[in-house]
Amino acid sequence: MREAREFLSIRDIRKIYRVGNEEVRALDGVDLVVSRGEYLAIMGASGSGKSTLMNLLGCLDTPTSGSYRLNGVAVEGLNDEELAAIRNEEIGFVFQTFNLLARTTALRNVELPLIYGGVGRTERRGKAERALERVGLADRMKHRPNELSGGQRQRVAIARALVNEPSILLADEPTGNLDSTTSAEIMELFDALNDAGNTVIVVTHEDDIAAHAHRVVTLCDGKIVSDVGK
Amino acid sequence: MRLAVESLAAHPGRAALAVIGIVIGIVTVSLVATVLVNVRNQIALLFRELGTDNVFAFHLSGDPYSPPSDEEARRLPLERDFGDVIVREAEAVEAAAAQILIPAVVNGRALSARAGSAVSDTVLVEGTSASYFDIVGAQFAHGRPFTQYEDRAAARVAVLGASLARALFGDDAGAGTLGREVQLLGEPYAVVGILQQRRGGFFGENRQDSVMAIPAGTAARRFPDADATVLYLRALEGRLQSARTDIETVLRRLRRLAPDEPNDFNLSTSEQIIGTFDRVGAGIALATVGLAAVSLLIGGIGIANVMVIAVTERTREIGVRMAVGARRQDVMRQFLIESLLLSLVGGAGGLLVAALLTSVLALVLPGFMPVLPLWAVAFGVVSSCLTGTLAGYLPARQAAGMDPVEALRHEAA
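The joint structure predicted for all components is written out below.
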């Protein structure tokens, strides 16, 4: 019963970098289990290892040691191509700096994961339009990023993350480049997405952002120092 | 694909600089190809006009107007009555004509033709037998060829090429010009015929249009030092090869050559001369392609350079693409397509510039046809594709090999 719910689990994950002769333990034995539909915040000061953890969770990086299972797949044994497929199907990234393609329209930006997923033109267009409608940008589809406000850009990025219906929405400081009013709107969007059944993991160093989550994991020096549910 | 177009359009100046080498390479090849095709057509026309059934015999190999090699300089010229012997004895030869070439300078004086106050210094004087005009297919605009009698009697009569007639008698040179006099070395010659303009020629120039033909007998008397004689021997239809063999046999006997001695004369046909040119032309074409390869190499370096810049500038974009699921091969393909597109733009530009330049040449040069041979177009397309792929390969591999975490962390330029 419990196994079925924990669709994301990492066990004794370590990530060790060598900088010159020095060994940097970015993650030093982290265990974490996340259930479907959870709303999790990962907190910690800069250098605490939260970005490294987020890269591992997002399958952008592989651990030095330890195991990572996502939706029944042992991620640590996958090659580059399989990791790309996992990122495409299971993970939806939202970045602090939005990371939209500057010269393309909102719609084309949202279509990008579908292109790499091999989805046909018509179906792609329909899914991308629906994703943009979900984030409230039905009237901005043909706009380019430089014609959109910061909040609108982040909504496009969220639509891009949602479009493939991934297992996890992974947001790295999603409000770091936004003013407080816009930040609140974006966090309300995440709240609504979680209410609709999406698993959301937000990496942040701001308490009021973390307060939106139902569970807060705090990292320090590559280890989890607290794990508090609400 | 669309993304590739957009990213190239974002830096048009940079793209243009990158492809300039390719443009130059393709333009070079295309222009040389067009000129070669034109020269070849002109030459073909020029020699075919002299008769495709004719065998030309001369005591030297090569252009009759060029100085001979030391070895050939010792050869005796052919004699003009050899032609009659050949017609009698060579079964496949039906007619013969002789043409005595008069040097442009006689006794230290440059030859010039004058009529009244008009002077032509470019006149080409030759002594021809009465049958010459018929055998080389020269068409008369006015008047007639020489008669046998005029030839034997060394009459002072002349047939003028179209350009010479215009130069001496103005644009209205015509039937009224017949019977008028042309002065050559102070002696008067009566005009009995004017030839039509020849069709072949080098960019509208044909030396045959500047000719002042006088009877061979007259030439032999007035210019006794001019002995270089070309024989024109017309084969029966379809018997060119056997005529050639026969002529060789007869000439060897007339020249009293022992069986082990090589020919001391040269036989050629218009197809053979065109064939010789085609070999030279192919060599020139090959050398040009080699030269173009250098520009293409430079073009390739330019494209590689632009692609390296593009990959560096768009490191973060590459990271984003990878984060949303692009495989390494997707990234690789994207940059290869961009590089290919860039070089194809260069190739197309080169062909366009070449087409423009040849059109301009066609306006300036009479008789120049602005054709672009298929092999030049194929060379343009294939070589630019190849350059694009090769130049784009390393930058594309660099992009595909990026670590997504590092790429996402990269500061935007």
